[in-house]
Design goal:
The protein has helices at residues 11-16, 31-38, 86-97, 127-152; strands spanning 4-9, 17-27, 48-52, 55-59, 80-83, 101-111, 114-124. The radius of gyration is 18 Å and the shape is globular. By secondary structure, it is an alpha+beta fold.
Length: 153
Amino acid sequence: MGEIKVVASNRRARHDYFIDETFEAGLSLMGTEVKSLRQGRCSLAEAYVTVENGEAWLENAHIPEYTEGTWTNHSPRRKRKLLLHAEQIATLAEGSREKGTTVVALQVYFVRGKAKVQVGVGRGKKLYDKRQTLREQQDAREAARAVSLRAHR
């Protein structure tokens, strides 16, 4: 597999949702959007995926206008088509219909020069789930720190 160049990550998504299943989808972009992504400019903070008429769409992802663009520039928050197989779109549609689940964008990156987005079907976490996850991460950090200190002695 080619080298992956990550443009943007939605770190909040893994904090707010249990991600059950992930997919890699191609993005149908305009030229100025690709150039803006290559500059490393993108925000997935409020991005989600919808399925309409058998097609998957990335909505509310913010790709700022290309700085050197002219009148051909794109609108920053337009809907962008996701390129997926039919069975993957069916899985996403099923996931978005279930109560308590949503389809969120996790990451935008380039693989062999092609813009890709990683989307995940997620179930919302309750406040106590978020606290439990943070506690587990903190315990893992403390354990790694203790092992590291022990190794340096």
